Amino acid sequence: MKLENALYEVTFTLKGAEIQSFTDKRTGIQYMWQGDEKFWTGKNPTLFPIVGNTYTKDYEINGKRYAMKNHGIIRISTFTCIEQSDHRIVFELCDNEETRAVYPFSFRFHTIYELSDWGLTISYEITNTGETDMPFSFGLHPGFNCPLMEGESFEDYRLVFDHEEHLDHWIMDETAKKGVRIKPITVKEIPLRYAEIEAYETLMYTGMKSNTVTLQGKEHGVRVGIAGYPMLAFWTCKPGAPYLCIEPWYGYGDFYATEKDFYHRDGTMILSPQKLFTTSYTIEVF
C-alpha cells in the first residue's frame, strides 16, 4: 500500500499501520530507517497504551495483573485498511481477544496518513468504545536514516528547534527521587553525538514551545512536528547505528518502583466511555 504524488512515494505496512518507506522521487533519498538486526529491527512504531513499560513489566487493573511488551500493543497488531485514495489512507484496529488479554479495554484506533506536496500528515483517533474509563498513554517512535547521504557521518547532523528553547532535561538516575533528575537547559541546536546519547540512554526533554524540530544535515534533513506533545525524546541504540528516532510523547515509562495501579501511573491519561482522543504530527523532508 502506498501514497504517491509527483514528489514523494510513501509505503505502509498493515502490521502496526507503520510507514515502511518515505522516498523523495527527485533525489532518491530514503528517509525512513529500514530496520537492521545489527542495530534495531524496529522502524516506526506507535506507542499505545503505554510508552516504554512499567517498572515491574506488569500492571494492575481492578485487582488483576496484566503485562504488555514494551510500548504496548499497536506495534505488534495487524490493522485493516478501511479507506484509501490518491492522497489519503486510513488504517483501523479494534480491540480483540489478543489485545484484551493484555489490555482489558474496548477501543477503536485509527491511523490516518495524508500526503501533500510539502510532506506527510499523520493523525490518530482513539475512541473508548467501552463503558468504563480507559487509562492510556500515547507516543511516537519514528526512526530516520542518519546520515542520509553517502560520505556523511552521524556527527555531521544536528537537531534544530524553531527558536531558542528553555527545556527541562530529564536524566535517568536511580538515586534520585522517582528515578529521574531534572536539569534546566537553554538550547536552540543539539549536535548529534553518540557518546551523549549513550551516556543518557535516551535524551528526554519537556517544555518545548517550537512547533517542529529538524534533523539537519549538510544539505538534506527531516522536519518533524512536535506541537502539543508535552515530552520529546531522541534515541539511537548504540554508537555506529545509522539512524535517529525523534519521539514526541504524551507519557513515559516508569523510572521507579511504584504501588500505583495503571489508572494512576505518572503520565497516564484517562479517556471516558464513548469519548475520542485525537492527535497528529507531520513529517517534512528536504
Task: Write a brief caption for the model.
By secondary structure, the protein is mainly beta.
- DSSP, total strands: 22
What is the N-to-C succession of helices and strands?
A: EEEEEEEEHEEEEEEEHEEEEEEE
Fraction of helical residues? under 10%
**Average of the residue pLDDT scores:** 96
Radius of gyration: 19 Å
Low-pLDDT segments: none
Q: Can you summarize the main beta sheet?
A: 13 strands, antiparallel
- Outline: globular
Count up the helices: 2
Question: In percent terms, what proportion of residues is strand?
Answer: 35-45%
User: Which structural class is indicated by helix and strand composition?
Assistant: mainly beta
N→C terminal distance:
23 Å
Notes on the structure:
There is one protein chain. By secondary structure, this protein is mainly β. It is 5% helix and 45% strand. It has two helices and 22 strands. The chain has helices at residues 97-102, 194-200; strands spanning 2-4, 8-13, 18-24, 46-47, 59-61, 64-66, 80-84, 88-94, 107-115, 120-128, 134-136, 139-140, 143-145, 158-172, 180-191, 203-206, 212-216, 221-225, 231-235, 243-249, 269-271, 276-285. Strands 7, 8, 9, 10, 13, 14, 15, 16, 17, 18, 19, 20 and 22 form a 13-stranded antiparallel β-sheet that branches. Strands 1-2-3 form a three-stranded antiparallel β-sheet, with no helix packed on it. Strands 4-12 form a two-stranded antiparallel ribbon. The longest helix is centred in the last third of the chain and has 7 residues, at 194-200.
